[in-house]
């Protein structure tokens, strides 16, 4: 099972995302990481992914204010064949582990990409995405002008946008070097407004929250409570799956309705959630988060089992009682 990416090469249709291994970081007093981590375990987990054939990792300057990038740089130092995407546009203070607002000035963005290259230990970053989901199109123009310059200089290979807004995805899709949209997609959210844009322009659909921020990993039930130091530990406008540190009742009910289908064919729940995404579109490249080698082995095991069948996809739709997608918003 593979996807052809913007370089023309085929890679396994599963990547891995690194938000959860960035460690604690904050926006003021608000914890926006996933809690404490063990760097040795994180590096071992990255190595497990490479050994299992994973050839794409997604990160961001914001994740741990550069810490996730640095971990990838250490773990992938001997693996130039592995493709890496990072995200820019959020200003960081690594000394205090703080996110400190938008960063859109071209000179500062250029310096930020250079800092990412150093942390990632790469002369060229394969893919750079704008991280500001709902940034107005007019304000994004200068960002993509700069990313185009960096591509021409060889500092980056390609660029795109991490956005859930179809108009943002379409606005720059015609540009040479604009190759990917990173967006929310999972069993609970089909991205019906965005996927036609991605498919019409031949973009890669990089899927964040493919496990609904861990809910589709099967570890959390209706009685689970997440700690305050976890980004899921408090309610947020963009977060549908957890409310006040607990699983959303509606999503717990929807999961129960389709659990048996997702776990068909000897799959774990997480593997079934990935199988749904692969059946959703041939352009998808999910990037589930991870913390441990054991989690990575489970995720990579989904590649052997493949997508759900068309009949299973129809049965999911019959059972899940989806909420209307509504107008585009950050997710």
Computed over alpha carbons, the radius of gyration is 19 Å
Quaternary status: single chain
* Low-pLDDT ranges: none
Q: Could you name the CATH class?
A: Alpha Beta
Secondary-structure element series: EEEEEHEHEEEHEHEHEHEEEHHEHHH
Distance between the termini: 28 Å
CATH superfamily: NADP-dependent oxidoreductase domain
Spatial sequence of strands, sheet with the most strands:
3-6-7-10-11-12-13-16
Describe this structure in words.
The chain is an alpha/beta fold and 331 residues long. The chain has one domain: NADP-dependent oxidoreductase domain (TIM Barrel, Alpha-Beta Barrel). The chain is 35% helix and 17% strand. The protein has helices spanning 39-51, 67-75, 106-120, 137-153, 166-171, 195-200, 249-262, 269-280, 293-300, 302-305, 310-320; strands at 2-4, 10-12, 16-17, 26-27, 30-31, 56-58, 83-88, 90-93, 98-102, 127-130, 159-162, 178-184, 204-208, 242-243, 246-247, 284-286. The strands form five sheets. Strands 3-6-7-10-11-12-13-16 form an eight-stranded parallel beta sheet. A two-stranded antiparallel ribbon has the order 1-2. Helix 4 links the parallel strand 10 (127-130) and strand 11 (159-162). Helix 1 (39-51) crosses helix 2 (67-75), helix 2 runs parallel beside helix 3 and helix 7 (249-262) runs antiparallel to helix 11 (310-320). The protein is globular. The model has no long low-confidence stretch (mean pLDDT 97).
